[in-house]
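User: Run a structure prediction on this.
Assistant: Running it now.
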Amino acid sequence: MNETNNISTLNELPYISYLDDQGYLPPDLEGKIGVYAVFDQSQALQFIGYSRDIFLSIKQHLARCPEECYWLKVQIITKPSRTMLEAIKTAWIEENGTMPAGNLVEAKWQDPIDAKPAMTEIEREQYRKSDGIGQLKLIKNVARRVEAEIFAQLQIRGVKEEMRFNPKLKENGLLDLK
């Protein structure tokens, strides 16, 4: 994890395991500002982002895209500016030669998970027939089911990092870490 205000190339930065042997994210990224690249299990680049707290951002990505989050490359910035963060991100995308797939569909990586598309046909029919309170309950139950599926995926990956979705968003069928 290079701590500098010079732009390091992706190629010269070391791969960092997304999870340690105990199933936790790299604790030394907590509260760190910088640019990061996320790679899948075969070390294919999936997403490049920047954050005022890299730890929280990569935690969100793990909950949203667990199958794409196996490796990281990070450049920590000591005197951050949006201009510098954008310059590093742009340089890494250019170095890669193509836009990473995750940056083409950033909503998957950046926005809360929308559980509503996971509704079954029966649930959709119940939703149409329900009143406001019934619809809220149904959407919340769908969100809980999707949440359970995500936690099951993370458990298979061996994730021990504590993750809690914001309960207030579940009423809207959205899942976002609190």
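Residues 2-110 form a domain with the GIY-YIG endonuclease fold (CATH 3.40.1440).
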